[in-house]
Amino acid sequence: MQGVCKLFLTVSFACLFLGSTTRACTGRASQQSKGPRQSTPLTLRQRVPNVSENTLGASGPPDGRIHRDNPKFDELLPPNNNADILYKDEEGTGADRRMSKRCKDKLNSLAISVMNQWPGILLRVTEAWDEDGHHDENSLHYEGRAVDITTSDKDRTKYGMLARLAVEAGFDWVSFESKTWVHCSVKSDSSEAAKSGGCFPADSLVTLRNGETRTMADLQIGDKVKVVDKSSGLVTFSDVITFLDRDPSKDTLYRVIQTDRPGYTATLTPQHVLYVSDTNSSFTDSRAMFASDVHTGQYLYTPVTLAGTSLVSLSWSCTVV
């Protein structure tokens, strides 16, 4: 259930120190259990998360087009020469191999998932970076942050599951937008949220499947923690598979946000994505904001069911990249 809390105190900053307050960010939790895959294919027109592509809760706003004559072109858009991926390359220029580093990483992960799901079948890219202006003005294709994909056998019955695999591979926004392809995109390589996501201090609590609470510092790979499925909004449990940012040797600046509802206080890094509204209204009227931009008097939604994953401190939801 979504709740809404009003921010009634001035948002304050707190510098939390080493030891029990080490910052920790879990990696994207795996939704698959050992044994046969239990993942549910996306349906036609379904988006994950179910927000607009250019919002902070998804892939974020465009940074600007990248042109081939940019002196840093090869650095910004390195070619992806993964032999396990087929490229349509209808332009004959190699443009479909050009993509941001984050997009390349997610695509390579997806290629492995596709081969595991359908032996003998490869991932196929029909569009990546675009230099010809064939897309909408704010398209992330122009900066190599978006790809359109199919399977090598072009079997449309596979595309719903392909979209689900893309979500699990870590793409920041996936849309099963056509019967003939799946669209995926990522946050900018320069985005702080893309580098580490939002983090919590290590003494924040999560809930395990057996009902036990455990601090972020004590979490272990393989622990099953309470999460929110961002495609359905349902609370479930999922495995911790990695820590994207766990640094016991560094002091970190955190933002403390307190609401008018007793017990609803959050300590998190400024780049955490939250959903807020200026009025006490429904979730559909909210917008995504970084924690650093939240101000007194706004209304905060908890947990963030459309963009969150780990449920922290029993009442807080975080976005994990």
Automatic annotation (TrEMBL):
<dbReference type="GO" id="GO:0008233">
    <property type="term" value="F:peptidase activity"/>
</dbReference>
<keyword id="KW-0068">Autocatalytic cleavage</keyword>
<dbReference type="InterPro" id="IPR036844">
    <property type="entry name" value="Hint_dom_sf"/>
</dbReference>
<keyword id="KW-0732">Signal</keyword>
<dbReference type="GO" id="GO:0007224">
    <property type="term" value="P:smoothened signaling pathway"/>
</dbReference>
<dbReference type="GO" id="GO:0005615">
    <property type="term" value="C:extracellular space"/>
</dbReference>
<dbReference type="InterPro" id="IPR001767">
    <property type="entry name" value="Hedgehog_Hint"/>
</dbReference>
<keyword id="KW-0472">Membrane</keyword>
<dbReference type="GO" id="GO:0007267">
    <property type="term" value="P:cell-cell signaling"/>
</dbReference>
<dbReference type="GO" id="GO:0016740">
    <property type="term" value="F:transferase activity"/>
</dbReference>
<dbReference type="GO" id="GO:0005886">
    <property type="term" value="C:plasma membrane"/>
</dbReference>
<dbReference type="InterPro" id="IPR050387">
    <property type="entry name" value="Hedgehog_Signaling"/>
</dbReference>
<keyword id="KW-1003">Cell membrane</keyword>
<keyword id="KW-0564">Palmitate</keyword>
<dbReference type="GO" id="GO:0005113">
    <property type="term" value="F:patched binding"/>
</dbReference>
<dbReference type="InterPro" id="IPR003587">
    <property type="entry name" value="Hint_dom_N"/>
</dbReference>
<keyword id="KW-0645">Protease</keyword>
<keyword id="KW-0378">Hydrolase</keyword>
<feature type="signal peptide">
    <location>
        <begin position="1"/>
        <end position="24"/>
    </location>
</feature>
<dbReference type="InterPro" id="IPR000320">
    <property type="entry name" value="Hedgehog_signalling_dom"/>
</dbReference>
<keyword id="KW-0479">Metal-binding</keyword>
<dbReference type="Pfam" id="PF01085">
    <property type="entry name" value="HH_signal"/>
</dbReference>
<keyword id="KW-0106">Calcium</keyword>
<dbReference type="GO" id="GO:0016540">
    <property type="term" value="P:protein autoprocessing"/>
</dbReference>
<protein>
    <submittedName>
        <fullName>Hedgehog 2</fullName>
    </submittedName>
</protein>
<keyword id="KW-0808">Transferase</keyword>
<dbReference type="InterPro" id="IPR001657">
    <property type="entry name" value="Hedgehog"/>
</dbReference>
<dbReference type="InterPro" id="IPR006141">
    <property type="entry name" value="Intein_N"/>
</dbReference>
<dbReference type="GO" id="GO:0016539">
    <property type="term" value="P:intein-mediated protein splicing"/>
</dbReference>
<dbReference type="GO" id="GO:0048731">
    <property type="term" value="P:system development"/>
</dbReference>
<feature type="domain" description="Hint">
    <location>
        <begin position="197"/>
        <end position="304"/>
    </location>
</feature>
<dbReference type="Pfam" id="PF01079">
    <property type="entry name" value="Hint"/>
</dbReference>
<feature type="compositionally biased region" description="Polar residues">
    <location>
        <begin position="26"/>
        <end position="57"/>
    </location>
</feature>
<dbReference type="InterPro" id="IPR009045">
    <property type="entry name" value="Zn_M74/Hedgehog-like"/>
</dbReference>
<keyword id="KW-0217">Developmental protein</keyword>
<feature type="region of interest" description="Disordered">
    <location>
        <begin position="26"/>
        <end position="66"/>
    </location>
</feature>
<comment type="similarity">
    <text>Belongs to the hedgehog family.</text>
</comment>
<dbReference type="GO" id="GO:0010468">
    <property type="term" value="P:regulation of gene expression"/>
</dbReference>
<dbReference type="GO" id="GO:0005509">
    <property type="term" value="F:calcium ion binding"/>
</dbReference>
<dbReference type="GO" id="GO:0001708">
    <property type="term" value="P:cell fate specification"/>
</dbReference>
<keyword id="KW-0449">Lipoprotein</keyword>
